[in-house]
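Hey, can you fold this one?
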Amino acid sequence: MLPVAYTGQGAGGKGREAPLLGMKLAPCPPCSLPRPLTNPQPGYTISVMRHPPFEVLAHDELPAAAAELFLSAAQNAIAEKGEAHVAISGGSTPRALFRLLATPAWRKRIPWARLHLWWVDERCVPPDDPNSNYGVAFHLLLQHLSVSNVHRIHGETPDPAQAARAYEDEITRRFGLGLFDWPRFDLVLLGMGSDGHTASLFPGSPALEESKALVTVGEAPVFPHRRITLTLPVLNHAAFVLFLVAGAGKGPALAQVFSSSPPRPLLPAARVRPTAGHLLWLLDEAAATAAGLMPG
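Sure. Predicted structure:
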């Protein structure tokens, strides 16, 4: 099922119009997702093949929207196969989501015992370094949970290539992959930088062109420069990719992602288009307005 929009209540507990889908969303039980996009409503004019589906929210609504979709994706996967595999990102935008998921109410709602947490990317630093993606998630979320299925990237390993191979081996074992198989994460949570990068896949990086490995080493233009990241094919084999983008500073890159004639080469974030899965961008009003995606 396609998680096309926030399933929670809007202001006053009323359903809201989903801008892209043109259909009314009533408050739904937390375990359900909106119906797949198979029969567009009359007057539907935006081609999902040309433009990624997106939902625009007030900035303070973004964490709750993402949390509902996180929960729905996990519950659907667990109902289908008994466990869920979620890959989370670093950066600034997911922090509010981590804080929300750590609250007592949300700790009770998420089936953590059957959920496997993975990382989309990691900086080559120790886990207690302030720049560590794992470290941020631990301090904001994991230390408040009783969860054992945590699969972190060992960024402190002296040889980043060795750490990348070790993480690829762990993914291969846990997903039971054969030769040439790709893992299918139930949810991949991504952000986007102002330069259009996502995960640790930066514009112009050779890591963008990696087509065989699951995990690779890349270089970032900012410190810490050395990164370990899932590759683009892994992201594009996910069942559901959810982007969280906030702030006017992301507007120019976001406009390129949603352009009908984007400049070449495509920004890394624009190259994330799941081949047999679903994609949704959750944007705050500042980012969407700066990108020209809503009336100014």
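The helical segments are 62-81, 94-101, 104-109, 133-140, 160-175, 232-236, 251-257, 285-290. Let me know if you want another pass with a different chain boundary.
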